[in-house]
Amino acid sequence: MSNSEGFTAAFEPLADFARGDGWRALAAGALEPNPYYEPDMLTAAARHLGRAGAMRLLVVRETRADHRPVALLPIQNPRLRDGILFGAWSLYANPYTSLTIPLLAAECAGPALRTALRRLAAEPDAPDVLHFPLVTEQRGFAALLAQVAAAEGLARLAVTRHARPAIDPAATTAPAVPRHRRLDRKARRLAALGAVTTGTVFSGEPDFPAALDAFLALEAAGWKGRRGTALACRPDTQAYARQAFSGASQRIMIESLALDGRAIAMNLNLVSGRTVFTVKTAYDETHAAASPGQLLDRHVAERIAADPDLDRADSCAQPDHPMGALWREREPVATLLVGLAPTLCAAALEPMAARMRLASRWRKRLRAVRERLGV
């Protein structure tokens, strides 16, 4: 346990931390939203994905009477696929995680983060590097991390960077969605086949369970099912999906494009604060010529841009995803390393970063080969 500035930090069992409303309140008032570290998603991941005990929760609490949680950092050992064999802590990520910023209470984010970093540094015989796999670079947490690291004399190094398609109406004065004559033509051809409708269902609504079933079936029927990466392909990932997207304590949004009442494209989204995060997409390949997925993406972009309750949307997709033609803003994302001891300079982090870049290049090459082979 570590005490600092009226805060205390300790590793806590997930089951204990999940009791009560402290976790949900922390997520609701976080400096920057991260739905992947909210209760439904994280408890489902711990239960169904990976080996038991792989995740440890570092929790920072106020020392006053109610011991309110003000920071949550899910920690794991680095994965070999990241190019790190040893020597680092890593913020938790699984194949469905698209953001790894900790939950920090906005009103005391700086002291809470300092307390967490000092606690990790004080762990006996522990790594002296902290790995953040996916950090949004132009938002609140990245700026705070830079400030705290500089004040503490800690080195910080960006390993890799990329930019995801996004919708952020406040960032541009251009129309939210560019017109595409090609898509207009495809929309007309699709309309000639029957009634085309769009729909939105939120968790907690009567139609939500059926919408989730429809999404899982649609994804499994397509190329993700053939490759074995659809959520419904394996018992563990299907169980994860059923729990993570149950909407028990998080807001889930499913968008759909239907032809004569049957969904032919669907997006599965998380809503945290005023931000939408697209977790998964699926479309009916028998209508691939009509690009139903892109037609849905265009509709979603228009809807989010016009929704007063939403500020932005993060596609959580690769830079070359077709969404990029329609979602014209970009969300810069980086993989970061932070030294936990002032004696560890940026140059000392570079060998680990070089191994990680090499692993990243090999992952991209392998993905390209698999796409060419269709496996």
Strands, helices and their partners?
Blueprint: E1 2-4, E2 7-12, H1 14-17, H2 22-28, H3 39-48, E3 56-62, E4 69-76, E5 89-91, E6 103-104, H4 109-122, E7 129-136, H5 140-152, E8 156-167, H6 181-193, E9 196-202, H7 208-221, H8 223-227, H9 235-244, E10 251-259, E11 262-272, E12 275-283, H10 292-306, E13 312-314, E14 329-339, H11 346-373
Helix pairs in contact: 3-9, 4-5
Keywords:
single chain, about 375 residues, alpha+beta, Aminopeptidase, 2 domains, 14-stranded mixed sheet, 14 strands, about 35% helix
Question: How would you describe what is shown here?
Answer:
- This protein has 375 residues and is α+β, with helices and mostly antiparallel strands.
- The protein folds into 2 domains: 2-162 and 332-373, Gcn5-related N-acetyltransferase (GNAT) (Aminopeptidase, 3-Layer(aba) Sandwich), CATH 3.40.630.30; 175-327, 3-Layer(aba) Sandwich (Aminopeptidase).
- The chain is built from 11 helices and 14 strands.
- It has helices spanning 14-17, 22-28, 39-48, 109-122, 140-152, 181-193, 208-221, 223-227, 235-244, 292-306, 346-373, and strands at residues 2-4, 7-12, 56-62, 69-76, 89-91, 103-104, 129-136, 156-167, 196-202, 251-259, 262-272, 275-283, 312-314, 329-339.
- Strands 1, 2, 3, 4, 5, 6, 7, 8, 9, 10, 11, 12, 13 and 14 form a 14-stranded mixed sheet that branches.
- Strand 3 and strand 4 form a beta hairpin.
- Helix 3 runs antiparallel to helix 9.
- It is globular and about 65 Å long.
- The N and C termini lie far apart (48 Å).
- The mean pLDDT is 91.
